[in-house]
Amino acid sequence: MCNVRTLLQVICLSLIVIQTVDSYSFALSKFTRIRRQARRTCTSTEFACKSGECIDEDKECDGIVDCTDASDETNACHRIKCPNYLFRCKYGACINPDLECDGKPDCMDGSDEKTSKCKPDDSSPECKANEFRCSSGQCIPEDFKCDGKAECKDNSDEIRATCWNVRCPGFTHKCKYGACVSGNAECNGIVECFDGSDEDPAICKTKPTPRPTPTPGTPGPQPTQGGCVLPNHPEFGEWQVYGIPGQFSPGMVIRAGATLRIQCKKRYKLEGKNAIFCENGKWSDAVGHCLKLCPSIQSTSTMRVTCIYNKHEETENCTEAVEGTLVRFDCAPFYEDLGLSRHPIHICRDGSWDQRRPECTPVCGQKSVNAQTLIVNGKPVKKGDYPWQVALYTLNDKELICGGSLLNQRVVLTAAHCITDDKGKLLSKENYMVAVGKYYRPFNDSRDRNEAQFSEVKHMFIPELYKGSTQNYVGDIAILVTRVTFTLSRRVQPVCIDYGLKYTSYTNEFGYVTGWGYTLQNDKPSDVLKELKVPAVSTEQCSSAIPEDYDIYLTHDKLCAGYLDNGTSVCSGDSGGGLVFKFDGRYYVTGIVSLSPQASTGGCDTQQYGLYTKVGTYISDFIIKTESQFRP
């Protein structure tokens, strides 16, 4: 039988064992509960942390540690492809490019503040051996680093990049981001880790105490110990608390050092800073405004866009234009939009531009303003006066066979008989080469070197009714599409076309034909581009004057122009060229050189009228349908 002293020892020992077992059981049940809570199955829109937690998939590799084990911000982020407009952290995460070198680490590893763009503040003093240098250049005592409180103004002493590898003594508590705080900090109701991880509700099984809704006459929450009142969310946007877990709403008080990140909804742009922080009871800046964006407008090869904001900030493009932004449009040289002269500046209002976007189209039917004058055979011919003139050559021997007129940078109007056999069958497009900007007839004339442009033919089109001489050349019109898109210049510009058939009366008016045809009957072709001024004559007058065997070609789609017994007429080498008339200050192609009578001695009869295919006859059914498919 044991004595009383022995009995007391046994009882005490039993109590110790029971207490130990109870403590172990409590700790085990707590650990098991946490694991059971964390090990739920993550949904398809969540990221599964290695710890078993589930976080929103958008939070993976965003620079912010959300998993307790930081498994959402590791080198595995390199497998994610960052869009070109984002900054890529050294370990692979993608963050807003504006955060690079902003004085505050935003990548988990702080690499956004260590790039070549981040120039250290030369005015910052050198820190002593027992001091820590903040990213901003500020110096603080080394012991203040990773202690749970931010002493650096930029918080760089309390971030994962600084603290993760710090070894905490066994009697301390390691914060989620790596700092070391008091061993009894966990779940004691007081936030001691800078990121608040010591009071994580998932571990502590606590909920924030609901705050009463303020009523009229009741003062709202007041900042304490340097904290700040959370502001209202911006309209069309929101703020998020960075680095501190928990649920937050406007009106709540948050501790000093807290950072808010502000972002706007899609199609809105933030005016103001995208991050503000709490210091000494005040926010570093006010929450900015989310302004609605107007549709993006960018410069093109034919139009220059200048964006003007705040009356002095100018940029090349308007990709993020907000309320009040002005945009000025300027057409490129040799392009125009007639409405721009009246309204060159548009305004962004409530997410839309106040006027339609202009369309710059090639200037048509205008002679070169700064034309160089040459003298040929005693008559002044201006080089560059007819920038729509096209020369059509055979590809093999480079012989000029026809002319043409440029309708746009890829489309040429010419005569069907230039590219068909006598029965109207198309020849191979491989036979031809198109040249623009030419003044001299020879294909490779060095005098045209800086102005001429060349292209092979990609497509050829003629009207279905064209059958050549078997149908008296009815439908003698063709469209060529070039492989190359020509560049507009002083020497290369399109002619105008009367798409609306506004100018249909031209009898007795004078038109102009250009080409490299024969200058005199039985003479050699012209070496330079020639101009012929001819009057349009009525069908009746023409029919009564031309030879009978030539009259059969005066069909419904032909117009007659020229002189009788004058010695000037279109001839071989001029075929396919345009007959242009000037209406309202511009030249419109009205006819295409088709036929001229033969002289008894051979060659062209320069004493007779010439016949031209009426362009207006084929505007709707042929030209518009074809040309519109190949506009640059």
From TrEMBL:
<dbReference type="InterPro" id="IPR002172">
    <property type="entry name" value="LDrepeatLR_classA_rpt"/>
</dbReference>
<keyword id="KW-1015">Disulfide bond</keyword>
<dbReference type="Pfam" id="PF00089">
    <property type="entry name" value="Trypsin"/>
</dbReference>
<feature type="disulfide bond">
    <location>
        <begin position="82"/>
        <end position="94"/>
    </location>
</feature>
<feature type="domain" description="Peptidase S1">
    <location>
        <begin position="375"/>
        <end position="628"/>
    </location>
</feature>
<dbReference type="InterPro" id="IPR023415">
    <property type="entry name" value="LDLR_class-A_CS"/>
</dbReference>
<feature type="compositionally biased region" description="Pro residues">
    <location>
        <begin position="209"/>
        <end position="222"/>
    </location>
</feature>
<dbReference type="Pfam" id="PF00084">
    <property type="entry name" value="Sushi"/>
</dbReference>
<keyword id="KW-0677">Repeat</keyword>
<dbReference type="InterPro" id="IPR043504">
    <property type="entry name" value="Peptidase_S1_PA_chymotrypsin"/>
</dbReference>
<keyword id="KW-0378">Hydrolase</keyword>
<feature type="disulfide bond">
    <location>
        <begin position="175"/>
        <end position="193"/>
    </location>
</feature>
<dbReference type="InterPro" id="IPR000436">
    <property type="entry name" value="Sushi_SCR_CCP_dom"/>
</dbReference>
<dbReference type="InterPro" id="IPR009003">
    <property type="entry name" value="Peptidase_S1_PA"/>
</dbReference>
<feature type="disulfide bond">
    <location>
        <begin position="127"/>
        <end position="139"/>
    </location>
</feature>
<keyword id="KW-0732">Signal</keyword>
<feature type="disulfide bond">
    <location>
        <begin position="42"/>
        <end position="54"/>
    </location>
</feature>
<dbReference type="Pfam" id="PF00057">
    <property type="entry name" value="Ldl_recept_a"/>
</dbReference>
<feature type="disulfide bond">
    <location>
        <begin position="89"/>
        <end position="107"/>
    </location>
</feature>
<dbReference type="GO" id="GO:0004252">
    <property type="term" value="F:serine-type endopeptidase activity"/>
</dbReference>
<keyword id="KW-0645">Protease</keyword>
<feature type="region of interest" description="Disordered">
    <location>
        <begin position="205"/>
        <end position="226"/>
    </location>
</feature>
<keyword id="KW-0325">Glycoprotein</keyword>
<feature type="disulfide bond">
    <location>
        <begin position="168"/>
        <end position="180"/>
    </location>
</feature>
<feature type="disulfide bond">
    <location>
        <begin position="49"/>
        <end position="67"/>
    </location>
</feature>
<dbReference type="GO" id="GO:0006508">
    <property type="term" value="P:proteolysis"/>
</dbReference>
<feature type="signal peptide">
    <location>
        <begin position="1"/>
        <end position="23"/>
    </location>
</feature>
<protein>
    <submittedName>
        <fullName>Modular serine protease zymogen</fullName>
    </submittedName>
</protein>
<dbReference type="InterPro" id="IPR036055">
    <property type="entry name" value="LDL_receptor-like_sf"/>
</dbReference>
<feature type="domain" description="Sushi">
    <location>
        <begin position="226"/>
        <end position="292"/>
    </location>
</feature>
<dbReference type="InterPro" id="IPR018114">
    <property type="entry name" value="TRYPSIN_HIS"/>
</dbReference>
<dbReference type="InterPro" id="IPR035976">
    <property type="entry name" value="Sushi/SCR/CCP_sf"/>
</dbReference>
<feature type="disulfide bond">
    <location>
        <begin position="134"/>
        <end position="152"/>
    </location>
</feature>
<dbReference type="InterPro" id="IPR001254">
    <property type="entry name" value="Trypsin_dom"/>
</dbReference>
<keyword id="KW-0768">Sushi</keyword>
